[in-house]
Amino acid sequence: MSSIGIYGSQGRMGLAIQDILASEGVRYAGGADASDDPVPVAQAADALVDFSSPAALESHLAAARAAGTPIVIGTTGINAQHHALIDDAARDIAVLQTGNTSLGVVLLARLVREAAARLGPDWDIEIVEAHHRHKLDAPSGTALMLGEAAAAGREVALGEVRVADRAGLSGARAEGTIGFASIRGGSIVGDHHVIFAGAGERIELAHLAQERAIFARGAVKAALWLAKQPAGRYTMDAVLGL
Ligand SMILES: NC(=O)C1=CN([C@@H]2O[C@H](COP(=O)(O)OP(=O)(O)OC[C@H]3O[C@@H](n4cnc5c(N)ncnc54)[C@H](OP(=O)(O)O)[C@@H]3O)[C@@H](O)[C@H]2O)C=CC1
Ligand SMILES: O=C(O)C1=N[C@H](C(=O)O)C[C@H](O)C1
Both 112 and 148 in a single domain? Predict the structure, then answer.
């Protein structure tokens, strides 16, 4: 039986993953949280999942690398420096980083890329996400992932067209930009709408998460798949065979 260790084990996602391990036929190798040493769990597990904090990413990657244990990074709010750390670790171990582990969102990103490629820049792209009141980062990792998909469809770099703040006298919308808006409230698990607004018509592609178990199942599936891969950086598309 394969075993999985969890960084962020006592958080919302950590507990959701622990809830489903037995039914997925997986052994729990233990977890680590803010005040714990990440090394023992890395040594005990066949694969790790990280749903904790960007501040912990460097030490979690170092522990996984030292133990030679593959790791799924689900933590969001990560920046270019974090991505460089992930690329570096992926020279020695298998690492999968994703803003969303659900099958539905991975497929949605495909559809967004396709729509963005077929609709010209006169179709404005806006991404609206809604999450629970406890979420720390914005835009969500998923919104950024969908933005990357839209930008890839248009063959532009997201960093050059991204607009995340329209407070104040922001002026008319610049053609070709991709806008982001974030809503926070109550217990919303995670909603994402990608709006393609044309002249006189609009297309909306959306994913509505109704329970955290969808992310937990995807994370476990990814970890079991990753445990069999050689060193390298992977995405959920590969896990799901898309
Ligand atoms: N990719 C995906 O599909 C999904 C990603 N997420 C992302 O996962 C992350 C966690 O979300 P969620 O479970 O809701 O958050 P929670 O705040 O509920 O849990 C975070 C957990 O991480 C631990 N933690 C915080 N800081 C550190 C640290 N420095 N070192 C080790 N552990 C730490 C906390 O431990 P302590 O309590 O001791 O501080 C806590 O157990 C977020 O970034 C979120 O956006 C969430 C859902 C799906
Ligand atoms: O913090 C959350 O809860 C979630 N975070 C991820 C994100 O930032 O996109 C995934 C999911 O939407 C839930």
Answer: yes
Do 203 and 140 share a structural domain? yes
Question: Residue of the nearest CA to atom 10 in ligand 2?
Answer: 100
Q: Please check whether residue 77 is in contact with residue 101, taking contact to mean a CB–CB distance below 8 angstroms.
A: no
C-alpha 50 – ligand 1 centre gap (Å): 8
Nearest one of 207, 187, 179, 180 to 135, comparing CA atoms: 187
Q: Cα separation of 103 and 148, whole Å?
A: 17
Radius of gyration of the chain measured on its C-alpha atoms: 18
Q: Does residue 192 share a domain with residue 156?
A: yes
- Domain match, 204 and 235 both: no
Q: What is the residue range of 165's domain?
A: 103-209
* Residue 84, domain CATH: 3.40.50.720
pTM above 0.80? yes
**CA-to-CA distance for 66 and 45, rounded, in angstroms?**
13
Quick one: DSSP state of residue 54? Answer: G
Q: Can you read off the two tokens belonging to residue 224? A: 């079991």
How many folded domains does the chain comprise? 2
Q: Which of 60, 83, 134, 135 is catalytic?
A: 135
Residue nearest to atom 33 of ligand 1 (CA): 34
For 84-120, how does the pLDDT look when each residue is reduced to its tens digit (9 = 90+)? 999 999 999 999 999 999 999 999 999 999 999 999 9
Q: Which of 60, 82, 83, 131 is catalytic?
A: 131
